[in-house]
Amino acid sequence: MITFESVSKTYPGGTQALENLDLDIATGSFTVLVGPSGCGKTTSMRMINRMATPTSGRVLVNGQDVAEIRPVSLRLGIGYVLQNGGLFPHRTVIDNIATVQRLLGLDKKAARAKAYEALERVGLNASLAKRFPAQLSGGQQQRVGVARALAADPPILLMDEPFSAVDPIVREELQQEVRRLQAEIKKTIVLVTHDIDEALLLGDKIAVMAPGGTLQQYATPHEILTRPANGFVGSMVSKDRGFRALSFSTLDEFSSTALPPRGADGRISMAAVAPGWMLDLDPEARTALWINEAGTTFPAATMVRRGDSVRSALDAVLASPVSAALLLDANDVPGAYITLEDLAPHLRPSPVAGA
Ligand SMILES: Nc1ncnc2c1ncn2[C@@H]1O[C@H](COP(=O)(O)OP(=O)(O)OP(=O)(O)O)[C@@H](O)[C@H]1O
Ligand SMILES: [Mg+2]
Fold it and tell me: Under CATH, which number does the domain 2-246 receive?
């Protein structure tokens, strides 16, 4: 457990970075601090490993005031991932990752063995081990940064805007990777971002902060989306909010229509949804083609299953030329289809307080 007890911070010169922060971060949870630039996210996070100190109040790790823990031993138990990977440019990838174990007193060989494990865990090929950071892509450098933070197996991992320097595709990959890692290793992760979508995607709990270092809401993504505490939180999530909320509800209870039987030509008439359209289904090859009156074919690229999010089902329906998405049965064979009408009852946005 990481606890902030009425923590305030005023920097010399008078900037109030943090005002009276009270926050309990459960062990093993993924917590995201989100808010606009300058609202005190980095300052709060650095207080956990004593890279910043409160002007008043206390930060406790497992009940112990961090002010009473020696910074070196505190930091060895807390991995820290910086924005640009924060790698040592003159050390190879593997030696970068081994840094912390070396500090922990492991000999070079044992430290490197641990480092190779960490490299694999973040999805990097061992062939990269002997390269220098400058010889890696931005996304790879970021992974090495995560590997270094993980290598010493610290119970707590701090990540300050770890994905902001990479392009959107790599970012999405890294986000998925970190989510998978968290599910696997159950560390306490505290991540800072100014991107509300990233926060909603990654966090078990999200702390929304506003300028002046004031906490606005501390809640689950679902609560933040459906019951924002005030106008500030509401405006952060309001853009595309209804659409975002769809990602969180799954399609378990919805109507669908069984596919009609095949005709003499082996094709299925889809006249019920689109006059003249046919479906050519090959369950063996797991392919499906929509065919229009002129004989032009369109692959049914996205199919859905029960349990998928409403958002992905909506995407699939909208991507289909007949506005119907094929529904896979338990054996992954299309047996029915869903239409916009089936989804409609699930698409109503929920009201936003104060917005
Ligand atoms: N060492 C410092 N000395 C003086 N003021 C500082 C110092 N570090 C941060 N500040 C100020 O404290 C406030 C909070 O800074 P902090 O870095 O915690 O914000 P942040 O939410 O992480 O912002 P960003 O999203 O831009 O990284 C800002 O106004 C910043 O200018
Ligand atoms: Mg910051």
Answer: 3.40.50.300
Tokens 């138990």 label which residue? Answer: 77
Q: In terms of residues, how long is the chain?
A: 355
Specify the 3-state DSSP secondary structure of 320. coil
Q: Where are the domains of the chain?
A: 2-246, 257-346
Q: Which DSSP string do the residues of 290-335 spell out, in sequence order?
A: EE-TT--EEE----B-TTSBHHHHHHHHHHSTTSEEEEE-TTS-EE
Query: Which ligand 1 atom lies nearest to the CA of residue 35?
Result: 21
Provide the phi-psi class of 131: left if phi over 0, else alpha when psi is between -120 and 50, else beta: beta
Decide whether any atom of ligand 1 lies within 6 Å of the 11 Cβ. Answer: yes
What are the pLDDT digits (tens) for 273-307? 999 999 999 877 678 899 999 999 888 877 888 88
What is the predicted pLDDT for the residue at 210? 94
Q: Which amino acid is at 226?
A: T
**What is the Å distance from ligand 2's center to 37 Cα?**
7
Give me the pLDDT at residue 248, please: 67
User: pTM of this prediction?
Assistant: 0.71
CB atoms within 10 A of CB 187: 20
- Ligand 1 centroid to residue 196 C-alpha, Å: 19
| Ligand with smallest separation from the Cα of 46 | 1
What tokens were used for 350? 């929920």
- Does residue 55 have its Cβ closer than 6 Å to ligand 1? no
